């Protein structure tokens, strides 16, 4: 496509950007990964808006190399849980290695993944290794992992700002997700997001709530 331009879209800009950034931090600081979900339903429109926001993320050469599959069907969620737990049992039975299991110990994870059925929705994120045009020809995609990672960040932040809870889940390998979701071979599943409302009285592990100090994550030059 030829290079073309358009006016920058209007957006209201806060008079005090530091205060606005602090407000976002205050809201996002309460975000925690939840493993105990209630049976409270989440409307499809909320999921649609969250995915639409993820689709606004920047991407290499604007190729937008992602696809999201939102699942609320109980039978499909049960299939995903069964397949994921099979991979997880192999992981925890030795495939992970002692160092990895030791790193996971403070988080309290194991091979049982009931959240994959309990959560109102599962959103499976796929990375497109390449695109396909109307003639069936390949379109090269650039910076796919980085682009999809940014989109996932947009998605998780939007879900939290919408008052929802979620859990990122990355069973390995994840090829079963492509089959269950009916996606083409050039799309690589990278994440399952369990999305819903936390069960009343839900508890979360302490360790992930302890974040690095600012001087550990920021250098100002």
UniProtKB/TrEMBL annotation:
The lineage of its organism: Bacteria, Pseudomonadati, Pseudomonadota, Alphaproteobacteria, Rhodobacterales. Keywords: Flavoprotein, FMN, Oxidoreductase. This is Nitroreductase NfnB. GO terms for molecular function: oxidoreductase activity. Residues 29-197 form the Nitroreductase domain. The keyword Ligase does not apply. Pfam families: Nitroreductase. The gene is nfnB. Its EC number is 1.-.-.-. PANTHER family: IODOTYROSINE DEIODINASE 1, NADPH NITROREDUCTASE. It comes from the Bacteria. The keyword Flavoprotein applies. CDD domains: iodotyrosine_dehalogenase. SUPFAM superfamilies: FMN-dependent nitroreductase-like (SSF55469). It comes from Palleronia abyssalis.
